[in-house]
Amino acid sequence: MARKFAKKALVFAKEATYGVDAIAAAEPTVAVLGREVKITPLAGENTALEYDDGTLGNSAEIETETYVSLEFGVDWAGSGVAVTPVAYDKLLGACLRQTTVKAGSVEQSIDEDGTDSITFYFYMDGTLHALVGARGNFKLDAKAKEFPKLMFTFTGLFVPVSAAMLPITDFSAWQTPMKVGAANSACSLGGNAIKLISFEYDQGNEVIHQEYVGHEEVLITDYAPSGKLVFEAASLTSFDPFAANTHVFTFELSHGTATNQVLWKTEQLQLGRAEYGDQDGTLTYEIPIRPLSNIDLLITQ
């Protein structure tokens, strides 16, 4: 009988010890209510033997590096309970973010010294792909009339593939998303409201698979956030993006309602070279952005 592509599930757990299977160790496990899940079970490099054996053509290749790459998206939404970390909190932790619970909100700030790692189990209709020691990067994408999402890309250590049935999944920790738009979203640049069409943020973590004698690890060695703003072009007197090139502004995007509200904000957003765009016949600005320092925040309320 043919196996079904849609019969898949993804679960994860934070590791207590790097590279040690956290799910097998019965650490708290979360099932991912995700979209666009994609796995590369045998990422890495092959090296050809290339013997001088007197013949033409190809020589055999041998695997000289093997790891696993995993991509998926989740809704950018709150936890549904006041002052409670979101379901994807531990995923952010493995992407150089740390969680701080404050009065009335939960903040995920950049942690340059973060060492969290994740174990993933990805089930594909009878097959289990596990990866341990996973660390990665994320992007935030919020577009008008669409559901905002966080796109994660993780690299993990390879575990031999095995046969397994789909697990029982509980998605109750995940909240229903709200569309980005006039009712539930607000955005300001330099303290002034803008008519935002889309916002893109890429934390830009540099993720490497490292292997030496007696050592194998996935590391985040650097990060360089970037992104893009698209918003309606008001009069030049109200905002001149061409004079604002390389200037630094405050910025805040909030979305949702109480207990399901999320924010991305920074006090230092540098604007790049603006270009014109067209949104249904309306003139827009399309501006690359450069978040400075390590002070941008993801917040849930």
Structure characteristics:
23 strands, globular, 301 residues, Phage_tube_2, mainly beta
What global shape is seen?
Answer: globular
- Overall structural domain count: 1
How far the N terminus sits from the C terminus, by CA atoms, comes to 47 Å
Described by strand count, sense and barrel closure, the largest sheet is: 19 strands, antiparallel
Strand content: over 45%
Unreliable runs: none
Q: What is the ordering of alpha helices and beta strands?
A: EEEEEEHEEEEEEEEEEEEEEEEE
Rounded to the nearest angstrom, the radius of gyration is 22 Å
Number of helices: 1
Secondary structure tally: strands: 23
Q: Can you walk through the features of this model?
A:
It holds the Pfam family Phage_tube_2. This protein is an all-beta fold and 301 residues long. It has one domain (8-43, 64-167, 176-300). The protein contains 1 helix and 23 strands. The strands form 3 sheets. The chain has a 19-stranded antiparallel sheet that branches. A two-stranded antiparallel sheet has the order 4-5. A two-stranded antiparallel sheet has the order 16-17. The radius of gyration is 22 Å and the shape is globular.
